[in-house]
Amino acid sequence: ASICCKIKEILFKHGLLFSIRHQNWVQIMYRVLISMRCLNKNNILISGLCFPLLDCPGTKSEQAGKSASCQGCPNQKLCASGATKAPDPAIAEIGIKLSTVKHKILVLSGKGGVGKSTFSAHLAHALASDTTKEVALLDVDICGPSIPRIMGLEGEQVHQSGSGWSPVYVEDNLAVMSIGFLLGGPDDAVIWRGPKKNGMIKQFLRDVDWGELDYLIVDTPPGTSDEHLSIVQYLSSTHVDGAVIITTPQEVSLQDVRKEIRFCKKVKLPIIGVVENMSGFVCPKCKNTSQIFPPTSGGAEKMCADLNLPLLGKVPLDPRIAQSCDEGRSFLSEVPDSPAAQAYQRIVQSECV
Amino acid sequence: EILFKHGLLFNCPGTKSEQAGKSASCQGCPNQKLCASGATKAPDPAIAEIGIKLSTVKHKILVLSGKGGVGKSTFSAHLAHALASDTTKEVALLDVDICGPSIPRIMGLEGEQVHQSGSGWSPVYVEDNLAVMSIGFLLGGPDDAVIWRGPKKNGMIKQFLRDVDWGELDYLIVDTPPGTSDEHLSIVQYLSSTHVDGAVIITTPQEVSLQDVRKEIRFCKKVKLPIIGVVENMSGFVCPKCKNTSQIFPPTSGGAEKMCADLNLPLLGKVPLDPRIAQSCDEGRSFLSEVPDSPAAQAYQRIVQSECV
């Protein structure tokens, strides 16, 4: 037992127990003790008795510093004080950096291709039409960053200065940041696993020199994974107004969107409301309305009623929306009298009043 | 010496690093020769296991797109239906979209459960010769969210490939989520000991989609995944009343046709928008059976023929 404690002390001293997962650690210690047994001709007990003594609960667990196995550990006081459970320091830094941002809105959807980026971009345009407001649009879709194209900023570059990365300005009061600006060309693929994507999101929040903002809009990729957990985690020291959830009318979309809503509830992110895109198409020739994505289960309207969420509005399909996005122009400026543009404007009004 | 032996000292570069066995701090380490020989950089044993398990699958097709919402799941499901219409073929559809698994709904299998037996997990059968696996079958209900980071998703994909009792298959179709991230790297990695026919890339006509799709094509080239061809969905809408065609997602930069010409890839076909497609998917029926004479269904059938001949 005394030999085991000695080994434990050495490992603890070098901070090695913090970096080894429990199972590996037990295995490794077992082998270490066997080796010691080989070296020592006396019988040393190596099984059963020793492992519970060496059972570090983990520095971030609730038992850290408090469990029986922490007795005699030189780090016991440190763990018990809670210092080892400190969160990523970046979270506090981001909290300070974004404390001057009055409103933060996340645009989410469980489903892809429903119009998140289109909505984010046009929300940014609409808010920035009030030139007294400072607006920023952050694109955290690392694999498929559409925002540069939609905002007409393809080919733009980001610069680094003493105060951080400078975002790209569409208008004097409308700044944009996306990984798209960091690529060599628009076709360059970003083939990253989760942890690397998380690191980039952290940098976007901590290192971009946004300045004083009235609105920060965050466009996200579809899903409930790394990007979504990270953005919520890194913004956890700030006040986030909430999320706007985008969907299309069909059940296959709503199914994924309900998952996103559950995600929001789980991470305690308020939901500002739901927008239903692609809500019917009016033939330009005969004016007949077709439901191209039929609301077989009642569409967003029923889902919102069921889940007690505000339906902010329904936007019809309009070829001029996709056209404007491809050309990097604001659809709200190009065809302001179209039913779709008017629907968008109503949504923005309702959201921000 | 003991700590060195078990890789417990800080300045061990790590057994899988390029410096393993070669760095200055490896001097005196009893494992030095082992590391330097490269034995510690052995890949995940699951890759070899999967290679053996899927060696009886004649054709493996991945359905990819950099862009979301272009019709990957719709296409995968209907490709599976079309291939399974030949009852002499055994077909399987694997859904590796962990966050947004649409396949159970589209295949009409919502609420079905997966069972475990001695030979592994049993997939869910739509027809005698058409099996399906998705994380959707492992959830409590269809609204349950799977909020997992990359590594956990990768683990599930590994299990899908290694632990599902597919049996002897003619075709394994893999439906993927949008992007070029964990799921895509993992599926390619775990299938690296097997022969994969290639990828079918789905897009819609507008440039915002094509931009993401070109990234996906680069991904395929980077991981040496052959590209079978490209399918352009939502390629025009014919008004049922006046028969006027509208390009709802206009091909402002030439659509998939130009992209395929530029990148020297086969354009397998163009499928028009048809409300009955979304309707069938919501209802879990095959659009190819429901409205076989529609232009969209015919386009799908032509694509399937061209792909598999």
UniProtKB/TrEMBL annotation, chain A:
GO terms for biological process: iron-sulfur cluster assembly. It is found in: Cytoplasm; Nucleus. [4Fe-4S] cluster 2 binds at C283, C286. Its main location: cytoplasm. One of its GO terms (cellular component) is cytosol. Residues 102-273 form the AAA+ ATPase domain. InterPro entries: AAA+_ATPase, Mrp-like_CS, Mrp/NBP35_ATP-bd, NUBP1/Nbp35, P-loop_NTPase, YlxH/NBP35. GO terms for molecular function: 4 iron, 4 sulfur cluster binding; ATP binding; ATP-dependent FeS chaperone activity; metal ion binding. [4Fe-4S] cluster 1 binds at C56, C70, C73, C79. It comes from the Eukaryota. ATP binds at G110, K111, G112, G113, V114, G115, K116, S117. Pfam families: ParA (PF10609). Keywords: 4Fe-4S, ATP-binding, Cytoplasm, Iron, Iron-sulfur, Metal-binding, Nucleotide-binding. Its cofactor is [4Fe-4S] cluster. Binds 4 [4Fe-4S] clusters per heterotetramer. Contains two stable clusters in the N-termini of NUBP1 and two labile, bridging clusters between subunits of the NUBP1-NUBP2 heterotetramer. Heterotetramer of 2 NUBP1 and 2 NUBP2 chains. Component of the cytosolic iron-sulfur (Fe/S) protein assembly (CIA) machinery. Required for maturation of extramitochondrial Fe-S proteins. The NUBP1-NUBP2 heterotetramer forms a Fe-S scaffold complex, mediating the de novo assembly of an Fe-S cluster and its transfer to target apoproteins. Implicated in the regulation of centrosome duplication. Negatively regulates cilium formation and structure. Belongs to the Mrp/NBP35 ATP-binding proteins family. NUBP1/NBP35 subfamily. This is AAA+ ATPase domain-containing protein.
Automatic annotation (TrEMBL), chain B:
GO terms for molecular function: 4 iron, 4 sulfur cluster binding; ATP binding; ATP-dependent FeS chaperone activity; metal ion binding. ATP binds at G66, K67, G68, G69, V70, G71, K72, S73. Residues 58-229 form the AAA+ ATPase domain. CDD domains: Mrp_NBP35. InterPro entries: AAA+_ATPase (IPR003593), Mrp-like_CS (IPR000808), Mrp/NBP35_ATP-bd (IPR019591), NUBP1/Nbp35 (IPR028601), P-loop_NTPase (IPR027417), YlxH/NBP35 (IPR033756). It comes from the Eukaryota. GO terms for biological process: iron-sulfur cluster assembly. Its cofactor is [4Fe-4S] cluster. PROSITE patterns: MRP. Keywords: 4Fe-4S, ATP-binding, Cytoplasm, Iron, Iron-sulfur, Metal-binding, Nucleotide-binding. It is found in: Cytoplasm; Nucleus. Pfam families: ParA. [4Fe-4S] cluster 1 binds at C12, C26, C29, C35. Binds 4 [4Fe-4S] clusters per heterotetramer. Contains two stable clusters in the N-termini of NUBP1 and two labile, bridging clusters between subunits of the NUBP1-NUBP2 heterotetramer. GO terms for cellular component: cytosol; nucleus. [4Fe-4S] cluster 2 binds at C239, C242. Belongs to the Mrp/NBP35 ATP-binding proteins family. NUBP1/NBP35 subfamily. Component of the cytosolic iron-sulfur (Fe/S) protein assembly (CIA) machinery. Required for maturation of extramitochondrial Fe-S proteins. The NUBP1-NUBP2 heterotetramer forms a Fe-S scaffold complex, mediating the de novo assembly of an Fe-S cluster and its transfer to target apoproteins. Implicated in the regulation of centrosome duplication. Negatively regulates cilium formation and structure. PANTHER family: CYTOSOLIC FE-S CLUSTER ASSEMBLY FACTOR NUBP1 (PTHR23264:SF35), NUCLEOTIDE-BINDING PROTEIN NBP35 YEAST -RELATED (PTHR23264). HAMAP family: Mrp_NBP35, NUBP1. Heterotetramer of 2 NUBP1 and 2 NUBP2 chains. This is AAA+ ATPase domain-containing protein. The lineage of its organism: Eukaryota, Metazoa, Chordata, Craniata, Vertebrata.
